[in-house]
Amino acid sequence: MLRRGAGRIAAVDAMPTAVRAVFGYYADTGAFDAGSLGLKRRVDARVEEMIETAFAEVEAAIAEEFGYDFVQFSYDTKLVLPAKLTLGYLYRRLDDAQHREAEAVTRLAVEALIDGDMRDALNDAEYGDFGVDFPTAEADRERIAEIAQSVLQRRVDEQFESYPDELREYYDWAVEISEAHQEEDEEFRNLMSRARAGEEAAREAIRDRYKYGTFEEDPTVFSAEELELPYLKTQYDRVGVIYDGMIEMYRAAGFDIEPAFKRSIVLAIIGAQIWLDDLDDYEVDLADGQLTPVTAEYLLADSGPEAKAAVIEISESYLNRARQQATAVDSTLTGIATEYIHRDGDPSVLPRRLPE
Q: At 12, is the pLDDT very low, low, confident or very high (cuts 50, 70, 90)?
């Protein structure tokens, strides 16, 4: 009775997505943890403090460079969600004396994630996410990005010195795989261009190498069944491996993290990449010639409705598995976050026609 009522509340579009996620997760799994919202507020506040501390140093460096007494700096930090979820997971499992140690590794993880994202932005000459509160020209925005990234990189390097080399090795391993995937971008763009021109061999290559690519060595994070998921290889290399490496950093620092929790994080992040970013950016990616699971489905399907249905099914296959794994390790916070991702996606933005 209660779960049915929760399901009805979750179905009310007028409700905030966060509220719908809490009730939807309870309706789906029967897991209701009243303390999870308080835990979320605690984790959010702690990680926000970490980011503010790092950005204060960025602000000081930018102010000195441009001759100001003080500047405000902002950068999109939604990619640190897995670090927040991991800290919440550890808060629940450690005594208070160990919370400081978990927070220290989380600080390193958060700053490393932001640093990596900033480096990607610099490599792609994309400076739009580097926000300041004074007028800037294009050359100024590039310089601001360089300063911000250099400050974060120095902070990350200094923090790594306090830990065993194994932590840095996991980080470098993940970055190497992610960057290798980026180096394949031009090849995938070429396949997309040829497929749009009607070349059947290119469509087959997208299906074989992009949608159903295989690993040289299967990651241990996935089950045999999960290794058959569409786009797993490319999306693991694109985003999932970074969070695989992040969890291994925590483990190398001495924290016991269950395999199912790591699986839930990696699957949720891949699902979010497809269901939120790639779905929302379909038109932009199509115009830019960027191959993603969403643009790929619209090249491989026989009709627009078929492509749209495939995108929904594939996204849900990742998010459903992530939710199941979170429930298995009693990580309600991660389950609710996955439910939020699911409810935040809007497949209505996808067209009903294939690209011309």
A: very low
Please check whether residue 209 is in contact with residue 281, taking contact to mean a CB–CB distance below 8 angstroms: no
pLDDT tens digits, residue range 113-157?
Answer: 999 999 999 988 899 999 999 999 989 999 999 999 999 999 999
User: In this predicted model, what pLDDT tens digit does every residue of 64-122 receive, in sequence order?
Assistant: 999 999 999 999 888 999 999 999 999 999 998 899 999 999 999 999 999 999 999 99
pTM of the predicted protein model: 0.91
**Pick from 338, 240, 349: nearest CA to 298:** 349
Domain span holding position 77: 35-162
User: What is residue 117's three-state secondary structure?
Assistant: helix
Quick one: DSSP state of residue 255? -
Q: CA torsion sign, 5 to 10 to 14 to 16?
A: positive
Joined tokens for residue 23: 């009730």
Chain position carrying tokens 């779905």:
279
Backbone angles phi, psi at 163, to 5 degrees: -125, 165
For residue 262, give the nearest of 276, 246, 238, 239 by alpha carbon: 246
Identify whether residues 63 and 149 lie together within a single domain. Answer: yes
CB 280 within 8 A of CB 350: no
Helix H or strand E segment including 319: helix 304-328
Instruction: Kindly state whether residues 156 and 47 are assigned to the same domain.
Output: yes
Nearest to 323 by CA among 313, 312, 332: 332
Looking at the fold, whether 240 and 111 belong to one and the same domain comes out as no
Q: Of 143, 162, 181, which residue is a domain's last? A: 162
Cα–Cα distance for residue pair 92/99, rounded to 1 Å: 10
Domain count, the chain: 3
CB 7 within 8 A of CB 24: yes
Q: Whose CA is closest to 234, among 293, 275, 187?
A: 293
Provide the pLDDT confidence category of residue 182 given band limits of 50, 70 and 90.
Answer: confident
Exposed, middle or buried: residue 309 (CB in 10 Å: 0-12, 13-18, 19+)? Answer: middle
- Same-domain status, 95 and 221: no
